Amino acid sequence: VVSINGDGGFGYGLAELATAAQERIGVVAVVFSDGAYGNVQRMHDQQFDGVHLGTELTNPDWVALARAFGVHGERVTDPAGLERALRDAIDADRPIMFRNPGHMMVMDGYRETADGDQFIHVLDPDQPPDFERWQDYDTQTIDGYWIGPASGTGRVDEASMWTDSDGDGIMNFDESRRFNLDPYDDDTDGDWVNDKKDMREYVFDSTGNYSKRSSDFDGDGVRKELDFDNDGDGSPDGCEDTNYNGIYQAASGETNNFSAASSQACVPLFNILYPLKTVPVNAGDPAAPDKILVQVSTAVPNGWSQTFTAADFSVTIGGSTAAVLSVYPSADTYFLVVSPPTGLAAAFHNIEVSLSGTGSDAEENAVYFLAKPNNDEVIVMDRSGSMLSNDKIGAPKNAASAFVDFLNDGDSIGVTSFAGSATTDYALTTITGAAERTAAIAAINGFVASGSTALGQGVQQGYGELTSAGNTDHDWSLVLLSDGWENVAPYWVDVQASVTDAVVHTVALGDDADKTLLQSIAGSKHGNYFFVDVDPPGAATASAASISVAPPQIAGTLPNRLADTYIAIGELTHKYQRLFDYIADASEQRVFGLEVYVGSGLPEAIFSLNWDDPAGYLNMTLVDPDGNQFKPEVEYRGDTHYQVRVPQPLRGIWAVQINVLKPTSELQFMLSGKTVTTLIGAVGGDPEERAVGVPVPIYGVLTDQKPIPGADVYALISGPGVPVAPKSIDANRSLLLQLFDDGNHGDGKADDGLYANLLNGVTEPGGYTVKLLAAGKNNEGEEFLRYASTGFNVRPRAAYLWHEDLETALDYEQLLQANNWVVDPINLADVPKTNFGPYSLIIVGPDTGKGYDFDIADLVPLLLQTGKPFLGLGDGGAALFHQFDLFIGYGQTWASSNNNVYAVAPTTVFWNQPYVIELNREKPLVTLYPRPLRELGVYIPETVKTVTPIAREENDAQHYPVVFETRGGIGYILWGYNAGPTQMTEDGRHLVVNLAEVLK
Predict the structure, then answer these.
(1) Measuring CA to CA, how many Å separate 623 from each of 583, 607, 646, 686, 721?
(2) 937-961 pLDDT per residue, tens
(3) Residue 682 and residue 773 in one domain
(4) Among 214, 476, 639, 765, which one is least packed by beta carbons within 10 Å?
(5) From CA 466, how far away is CA 470, in angstroms rounded?
(6) Which helix (DSSP H) or strand (DSSP E) does residue 777 occupy?
(7) Comparing C-alpha atoms, which of 581, 618, 575 is closest to residue 597?
């Protein structure tokens, strides 16, 4: 219950009632007596000089006044009538608010015993701990009462009035319009205390008594439900209110969110994320275990920063201590590089991880020891129609063939693919020799690109091969490649829960791939994400003053870039390291001589040579450190690769001679082997928040049996927005970034084996490739080179301009952020101080203008000068476009009521990328909203050179509610509807996402 005039009191006078009626405040119901009850009697004594709806307010007709509010009113004159009214209301599922002297209560039930005693069910916030009770009806004083409706106050066309999208107990309308909260997030400020419980804490005291305090206790201009640190003591609210219930409970060890003198440090929500009993990790030979990665959650509420080092963690496996060699952060988790203890049985063991000052977590049977295990691997490849462009179907054939030959005899290989549906192209089969390799490669070479993208079904098909034919003693993995967005069910979200026992590595091929999804799949299934662009990298600019070794390289041809990636995945699945890497031009017949160092103790080394075109032919010979030419017993040759396996290679310098017999564009040589000196490449930060302008932490983790300090570590980063000076004209730019282990570059503690640096100033969204190089001496004094690869995605950023309607802004934010964007709602008042440089798109909310007028006219020149593309929504977009003097502005529109449109050109990108919107080619009618609503249509009686109609009205061939216009190379789209995405159909939402991608 709120006071009508906002004075904080529940009492109200006739003037307040009249004002409320005139402004149509949504009062539920007003039920008046003829003076038998004190509350109403006192209202008779108040005077107001005026008349409303024929009712003199000095002597009002109370029923008429109730109707002035648009609600039901009835007159009760006797106790029996009151009893009947209460029963009737409760029977109709209409709760009753009633007044007892001093406070308000709610009655929502009644009962009568066999002997005639009557009870009412009362909700009474003023009587702790008896908040909810059955009260003897005869003893309950009722001074006045108000009957509510069964289903709230909103009309069916005001969904926000009766919808609670985030389930926090506050309706969307109240969250967005009254409190500026996010109706799609139950904890807007991220303090782990949900919005309603945040509010509860300043309305009631710890015992539940009404005790209203300031909603902005620390006076910083931010209400508690929006302020993660209510009292400004440096401790977020959820760290003080440790059970997050909005009640201060000192006896439970909580501190007071309303006292800056009472605070405590945050304790992370700590638990093991990997390995798990359902997803165990193999530590290899129990006598000489492999290092393993352990991932733990270290989540804390918003506003609390934390940094941990290896010394903060301790690990036991099977009850024995395991060494934590190094750690690195990723979003709200940490990865631990762990060296397991020796001497444990070749069986499954429990793992326990402890974090100093926090606690510990354990996982049963999560680590097992199995020497020289084989691998069961399934290639899952996209063969949709988009793979035809840029030879995206040919290059993966090259790479996947090299990957098949990288596997060992005893491993199993399967090949599945997907377009409009998924198929098994080569059933999972144990490799015994050349026959299985040849058959798998033939299946890969038989791919023909056509159709749509059933990615989820493809993963399901591939995983089905593992579950039906895989060996449970083997390590399972999937290698998923795609160049587009899934558009055929079942989707990844439908199948992800069923993929439990396999690691999934993903490859995003080209910038049209759903990079966000593929990055998420790899992260959730403990694999690595790689991005391979169809455009070659630009020449690298070095950020370091000098480099002591040959810098890392990224291949210039797509087949070699993909082969590099697939071999890197093979190295991961077999726990190998890249020991040497070399790329060269192969366009002429010539001989290359390389000297590569092979360290001690390698059980095997794989020398791989790859080239880009089957028309080429290259050969490779090896000479060992003793000067003897190596005669391979195990070698694999394909149309674009040649691999030689050397068991237990001699330590020292090996001479590699590469002979280009039939020229091709490019060659790449790679040396792989299993070694105790390892380099791990990783990218930090939260992938969902990694947008243009956000610094990107790049990590290299270097260890043997201990952290390796003093090495030279570099990361070659290639992508569309890498900051280089002078600005490159290449589609991709490259930067050589030096990483440090000095404790000053986001690398934790000095000399802890974690090398890091920040990639600052990323200017463009898209996919980025990272290739790391480490050179130095390990802890045994042996020189080494190591290479590692990874990738990351930078999301495009959109600015959403709003004036009064925050709910629609947050609705669009939710839609676009689920589709690879980061969206910043910006109020018009904040536009002058906003730097629009990092934004790829400006969205203009429907509440920012009306007719010809933009709400704040002074902003028009500033917005025009940004040079950014605009997506204009409804009235606001049309008003701004009129001020921009665009053809698609308000002056060229009419208003009608529609919800269906015809696709003007169904084959264009607007209807097909990234989402394919299924259309009947003869009658391409699309339903954008479930029911007709106000629509602005641009009048286009004849062709306009700079204007491209996208969707036309169903019943008028000359008006178009969705229209694209270009001017000066900048795109503008009008979406002629005010209603937001939650009110759209799925096709409507998909079209909005497509439009945003076109403008990006």
Answers:
(1) 20, 12, 11, 47, 43
(2) 999 999 999 999 999 999 899 999 9
(3) yes
(4) 214
(5) 4
(6) strand 766-777
(7) 581
